[in-house]
Amino acid sequence: MKQLVVLSGKGGTGKTTITAAFAHLASENPGTRAVVIDADVDAANLELLLEPQHLETQSFVGGQTAVISADLCTDCGLCANVCRFHAIGHNSGRYVVDAMACEGCAACMTQCPSRALSMIPRVSGRWFYSLSRYGPLFHARLSPAEESSGKLIALLKQQAQTYAAENHLPLILVDGPPGIGCPAIASVSGADAALVVTEPTASGIHDMERALDLAAHFGVPAQVCINKADLYPAGAGTIAEYCRQRAVPIIGRLPFDASVTEALVRGKTITAYCPDGGISQALRAIWQDILVHLYAIEAA
Amino acid sequence: MIIAVASGKGGTGKTTAATSLALSLAPEQRVLFLDCDVEAPNAHVLLHPTITQKKDATILQPVVDADRCGMCGMCAEVCQYNAIAVVGQRVLVFPELCHGCGSCALNCAWGAIRETPHSLGTLAYGHTSEGIRFASGTLHVGQSWAIPVISQLKESLPASADETVILDAPPGTSCPVAETIRDADFVLLVTEPTPFGLHDLKLAFELTSELELPTGVIINRDGIGDARVDDFCAQAGLPVLLRIPMDREIAAGIAQGIPLVTLKPAYRAQLKETVLALAEVSL
Description:
The complex is a heterodimer. By secondary structure, chain A is α/β, with parallel strands linked by helices.
């Protein structure tokens, strides 16, 4: 079983469009049937293209939050003093926990002389097992302002791996989040290969470097796909030179193409909406190369 | 006034809008610009600041003095993150799991735990040629926890009363966004008129509603996609404060690091008006 993660650093470079196209292309061949994960858990968009039917919905308990029992509290303020996250304040005559700021460290609970503090599980979102038109999809919805996105992604990955193993599916496709922090780390760790989708803009290039650094940090081999490559050809040249120096292969270039938005508005993957278009052909070629690359890793 | 520019979906044009907002006010007005997208900070690409000072964003992490340690295991017991463990006759600390809460040190009966700063990222301070005070945070590659970098960036540079503060937020709707926008007077949500843009705008609006923050919308790449973002804004009572059309010239200019108001100076007046409108709403 192989795991491919699609990353970018910068948001909006085309991760989801490309992952959805791969999910479509993977489903066309019985030998490459994939389990798909949407790891962008606080802004998950893959379902808008894959039309999943939710077969299973579960609550996600990501951590814990301190609560203060007003009956036991003697108003000594020690809890507020030890909290480094400014999560305990004095409000209308009593100490209260700001659940959003609470990190669940329990330092307050260990220090409270009157045992007025306890920790309660924190439901931070929901996750779903769905069947999409291109196969199984594991996705989630983190509640607004919640943390623990890394834990939620790790859970999705674990579920997807179990499913893939039980059903003999050879591939897990991960639509990663933007950035390089907690959710990106959870997405990249354990992957066999990373596809970094960038665009030829100064920001896209800057963040691609950080995404490549992240993949390298976790020992995951990466390849680069330049989206909207014709928008600013000089930028595409800069990316090519940078990748050459770093010995990172550029697996393909995609043109700026208005049909991508048309397909999105119709809720379709670009490869299904416009199978013979230039961009779909380019995506097919990239997908074939990725399969070869994943296979080569296995051979090595 | 503190204006946060956020989005839900990434790549909708937050930094494009935030930087041009700052540039439309300066140098006549005093502006403080904070790039809080510490995982992928890009405002410098458009504002070209001169950086004059850098420092680390840190949290305190435990160092165990083996001579004093009584091997009782209390530190490991109280740690909620499995960041400290007693293995054989040694106490191991796993820095990437530690949240710097200090519980281990507080609960060590032997006084064996000392805490030292551990760097999560870099804070950079400077100014632009237009006189904008500029600061940005950059999370180190391999570090997972962005929150302290954002909060220390904001704490380290308090705004003066006559300054307009512009916060360039990270994408998404989770804790780094909440940390960035929670003390804002107004949140501008930048979106694009596509199903992705709409879906994430709804989520971002859920967040600003939960935080009870006045919110308005900027529609970028107006003309692509469909009218559903407009329909949603009308239904939800979300004011659309600015539209930036889909224009390859703008896209190519931004790609090269040229700000919107430099490419199309007409936006300067529009953005100024937007800020005036916000000042009225948030008062």
